[in-house]
Write a structure and sequence with these properties.
heterodimer; A: alpha/beta; Rossmann fold; B: 8-stranded parallel sheet; 13 helices; 8 strands
Chain lengths: 184, 290
């Protein structure tokens, strides 16, 4: 399997290592010409969504990637990546080009950025994930999924009753970082 | 505490491939966020002005830092003086995302650094070579940056520090296992961290460049030399068109290998900060705290 890892900013090296450990071939997506290589899966790593979103637009990557995601390309997204995919960003504060209502808007959930507060609110826990027990989960200035906007969204893990990982059609999204711990 | 250390290293991993910008007002913080900064450093005076003003330079007013925290959604960092445990506690109390125990401010302790393992909040520290980096990591720093010579706009020191650190890392990797004890002694660094470098060929924490980065080309140079991201201090808001320059530096860090793009990014940025040559100044900040 060939995985394209969005590598404009953030923990893209960790995301690539995560997929290589599972036997996949990976390549970095830093500019438009990288998309010519073709991929079986798009991985969107953690980082700052404001930065990644802006760079996607500046580099002309946004529209072609959106077309691929809407066209059914499998996507695996963590943290900032989940924010880029959400249909609604349920975020207090100002709106502008780096803090829009949504980016790709491809996954029918609402997310709130930095939902657990600043870095002192970052935490780890162990819990059930997709039928596996005692799974390690790392939340770094994590977003929360505040609403699920389609009955077809499958919830894979929860914290305090709210979903922390979901699957919907071609998309799997996490508020935590499977690439920092064990394989998911 | 081990968990906290890991979480704090993880936050630095999320900042990689990004640009951390010095800001002095909420307005500048917004400009930085809109230009694509992955974090901002809140301080009352940028290093060039600290240098020009002289006198004792201290932690910024918490009210000013809180104003910046309210203005942006990206992580907010702030500086405390080297060895100033109380300033660090104050910054932790206002829930800063990262503390920079920084040589840019006047040192409060001219021998010891803060025992950062005693804090929940993460610390970034400057280092000019591998030994200094590993000493800071031993004390609990979860992110390292080069020291550069802040406020000069001269990148020469950052280059010197990054090159030295990378070549020392390559040397430690090349050693026989039974030579690591002597290497730890020479580097004046904890043995377990020297072993980590030997086995992994890198620091156990994220390593950024800082000091004198003023242009997209400077940022690309530091990435070429092995930096995982850059701090830009005086270089942005001391230049002619801060928003444009900031955005160009952000793109340069992502695509530092694409010279055609770098050429385009470097066009019409207006005047860069005037700068001072690092060898023409009297206060050598990089010498502070070893």
């Amino acid at each position: 399997m060939k995985v394209g890892v969005l590598s404009v900013q953030g923990a893209f090296a960790e995301m690539a290592a995560h997929w290589r450990a599972q036997g996949a071939e990976t390549f970095e997506i830093r500019q438009l010409s990288d998309l010519d290589r073709g991929m079986d899966l798009l991985a969107l790593p953690g980082g700052e969504s404001t930065v990644q979103g802006k760079l996607l637009k500046d580099l002309g990557l946004f529209d072609p990637l959106k077309a691929k995601i809407d066209g059914g390309l499998p996507v695996y997204a963590t943290c900032a990546g989940l924010i880029l995919l959400a249909e609604k960003i349920d975020d207090p504060g100002r709106r502008d080009d780096t803090r829009p209502e949504k980016w790709f808007g491809a996954l029918p959930v609402a997310v709130r950025r930095n939902a657990y507060g600043r870095q002192l609110g970052s935490f780890t826990m162990r819990g059930d994930f997709d039928g596996k027990h005692d799974f390690p989960m790392t939340f770094i200035r994590a977003p929360a999924i505040t609403d699920v906007l389609s009955p077809d969204v499958e919830v894979l893990s929860t914290f305090d009753g709210a979903p922390t990982a979901v699957r919907w059609r071609n998309i799997t999204g996490f508020t935590w970082h499977p690439e920092l711990n064990a394989m998911a | 505490m081990a968990d906290r250390q890991e979480l704090n290293r993880n936050l630095a991993q999320m900042l990689k491939g990004g640009v951390i910008m010095d800001v002095t007002t909420p307005e500048q913080a917004k400009i930085a966020e809109q230009a694509g900064a992955c974090a901002v450093m809140a301080l009352e005076r940028i290093p060039a002005d600290i240098r020009a003003a002289g006198g004792v330079s201290r932690m910024s007013d918490p009210a000013m830092i809180k104003g910046i925290q309210a203005a942006v959604s990206i992580p907010v960092m702030a500086k405390c003086r080297i060895g100033h445990i109380a300033e660090a506690r104050i910054l932790e109390a206002i829930e800063i995302d990262y503390i920079d125990e920084s040589e840019v401010l006047s040192p409060a302790d001219d021998v010891r650094h803060i025992d950062k393992n005693k804090f929940n909040v993460p610390f970034v520290c400057g280092a000019r070579d591998l030994g200094e980096a590993l000493r800071r990591i031993g004390e609990g720093a979860t992110m390292i940056r080069t020291k550069g010579e802040p406020g000069t706009g001269d990148v020469v020191q950052a280059v010197r520090h990054m090159r030295k650190m990378q070549s020392e890392i390559r040397r430690v990797v090349s050693l026989r296992e039974d030579e690591l004890y002597e290497a730890a002694k020479e580097l004046a660094a904890p043995l377990d961290l020297v072993k980590y470098v030997h086995e992994n060929g890198k620091l156990p924490v994220v390593n950024f460049a800082a000091g004198g980065v003023a242009t997209p080309a400077d940022a690309a140079l530091m990435m070429e030399l092995g930096a995982e991201g850059v701090f830009v201090g005086s270089g942005i808001f001391k230049s002619g068109d801060p928003a444009k320059r900031a955005s160009a530096i952000v793109q340069a860090v992502t695509n530092w290998q694409d010279s055609k793009l770098l050429a385009k990014l470097s066009e019409n940025l207006g005047p860069a900060m005037v700068g001072i040559n690092a060898d023409e100044i009297e206060t050598i900040m990089e010498e502070r705290g070893k």
